[in-house]
Amino acid sequence: MNSIDISVVILNFNTLNLTKLCLESLKRSKLGSYTIEIIVCDNESTDGTLEMVKKEFPDVVRIQNKGNIGFAAGNNPGIKKAKGRYVLLLNSDTEVEPNAIRSMIEFMDTHPKAGAATCKLLLMDGTMDPACHRGLPTPWNACMYYAKLEKLFPKVQLFSGYHQLYKDLSTMHEVDCISGAFFLVRREVVETIGLLDEDYFMYGEDIDWAYRIKKADWQIWFNPNVIVLHKKKQSGRSHSNRERRTRTQTFFITYNKLFYTKHYEKKYPWFITWLVYRTFDLQLLLLKLFGI
After folding, report:
1. Distance of CA 213 to the CA centre of its chain
2. In whole angstroms, what is the distance from residue 214 CA to residue 196 CA?
């Protein structure tokens, strides 16, 4: 039996201050009889994060990756090194409440069919991060989302499949996909389906993992009784720098296209696939020409 209950893997790339706050919140965790290990994987940052971790959090395991190798490849060394019964991928831009980790372990222990689970991620403005409660991005779900029909009819299942907003967000229930910002997975699942797919550099890897978990007949759960702060939109697609914003938006489109190629291309008729690929191509063209 593993002596460690949960391994928390945090990927860092030049987010020293955010990582420090995240680690401080983990150190305040009220774990009861549960045990934890924390692993920080660093994508060769230049801001001194690993030095800070070594000095201020000496019990934290540190892994130095070679270069900025992306989210999947950056996290995988930590997942490989993890010794816990459960592995939690946790973004550096999150802060956990004192009871969050213990409550999620208890949840998984009482839901043996749950291969993975997440909590309710709250953004800085107090609203829920919809990425923690998603359906799979089928062509129909994606079309309804981009056509804004999900926003107009959030409680109608036909139109709201992308984020499954028709479900009761105040109760625990199954979902299809959860965010890599707080992705709690059972060790047995990792041993069965494998690590994050390193073909994805940024975006899509959490959807891919969730898809494979569901395909292996495990459940994925959303637990709104546990709340974690997600200081999202401070970088990436919402960054104030247009060049950086455009680059990460390009990643978003490219790796969503990759997900379709891997998992949906053979499931749908050729004309659906043709339309999907032309849509991705048009998005990339508009992004290149106009930055939108």
Report:
1. 14
2. 14
Closest CA to 97 of 121, 67, 79: 121
Domains, the chain, with CATH or none:
6-133+169-234 (3.90.550.10), 238-290 (no CATH)
Question: What Å distances lie between residue 123 and 93, 130, 233, CA to CA?
Answer: 11, 10, 9
Q: 103 φ, ψ to 5°? A: -65, -40
Contacts of 271 (CB under 8 A, 6+ apart): none
Residues 193-233: tens digit of each pLDDT: 999 999 999 899 999 999 999 999 999 999 999 999 999 86
Taking the model in full, what pTM does it have?
0.94
Mean pLDDT for the stretch of residues 16-42: 97
Distance CA 259, CA 281 (A): 15
Neighbour count for residue 202 (Cβ, 10 Å): 18
- The residue-averaged pLDDT of 237-245 equals 60
Which residues in the chain belong to E strands, given as ranges?
Answer: 6-12, 36-42, 61-64, 86-90, 94-96, 114-122, 173-174, 182-186, 219-230
Phi, psi of 39 (to 5 degrees): -125, 125
- Taken in order 182, 235, 81, 201, the sign of the CA dihedral is positive
Average pLDDT across the chain, whole number: 94
For residue range 102-133, list pLDDT tens digits in order: 999 999 999 999 999 999 999 999 999 999 99
Distance CA 183, CA 29 (A): 18
- Render 196-244 in DSSP notation, one character per residue: --TT-SSSSHHHHHHHHHHHTT-EEEEEEEEEEEE--SSSGGG-SSHHH
Q: Tell me how far apart the alpha carbons of residues 145 and 153 are, in angstroms, rounded to a whole number.
A: 10
Q: How far is CA 142 from CA 23, 43, 137, 162, 240, in A?
A: 35, 31, 5, 6, 26
